[in-house]
Amino acid sequence: MREPMREASFPSLESAIRIKGPLDFCGEYVPLHLPEVRERLEKELLLMLWDRAQAILWLKRSGRYFPHIETVLKGADMPDDLKYVAVIESALKPRAGSHRGARGVWQFIASTARKYGLGVDRAVDERRNFHLSTRAAVRYLRDLRDQFDSWTMACAAYNMGENGLEKAVAKQEVKDYYRLHLPMETQRYVLRAIAAKLIMADPARYGFDLHPEDYYPPVRFDRIRLKAQYPTPVTLVAKAASTYYKTIRDLNPQLLGDTVPKGEHVIFLPEGAAENFSDKYHPLVAAYRKQFQPATYVVKRGDSLTAIARRHNMSLWHLCRLNKLTTKSTIRPGQKLYLSK
Predict the structure, then answer these.
(1) CATH number 3.10.350.10 is the correct assignment for the domain at 295-339
(2) Crossing angle, helix 130-148 and helix 83-90, to 10 degrees?
(3) Residue among 174, 148, 173 at smallest CA distance from 161
């Protein structure tokens, strides 16, 4: 039976922005008595409540992502309010990107991601993996808090960069976020996080009537370390995990292509798939390598690269590329060369 549709009922925008203090963010006082601060917060709250569809998606996604963020923050003895940074950064979308090159739920730029241990290259971008990037973001925010001695300032630095914020503090001789003249995006940043907190911590007050079953559940998975001697098709990983290609790609958005690159990688599998994964994976990889491994040729006395390429219907360029040689490289009897099939 379908549940009957109900008419919408929610507070007027005017009543929704009548914020009564005291109000804090990360345990730090929000100076609502300052008219400019109250106006900035009311603006962000109005914009969020106007786009109710977006706010509903934030709430529903919070069921999937907040439990892990909360666990990591608690383990690091950091304020729970920092989870709202992820909301305003990406709307809790792991594949989110910006025109500045930021990626993932926490919107890391590549240089900061690498600094905090995330791999970023043409084949793998760990900024897009929610679980890996969350731990990196928590470490970064903690370092910013140590640097600026304030969680509010740490969040501002997360948005505009620590160097830019340090220059603003030195120039204006002010260490209070609410009294600093900053780029407009950063002036809005913490107030947006506070507005998201107000709505998401008490959705019923703002007319959002979500039931427990409406929230998206956390994704359950197994985590393994996969050592790939050669680039390995994602399809083989899916077969070894008894699942689909799409499932592996969805669980591992850090993989940017159809293969797991050479090297050691953290790979996420469907829950329960890790137990027999190795027993299935190694035979599949062995069969794949045997099927696609290039033929080989052992150099004999008097051979040349040109003669070998011609004899096996290959271009000289391709033979050299396959063996990481140049056309002027010297070959010796007994040397093994790879040939195309």
Answers:
(1) yes
(2) 110
(3) 148
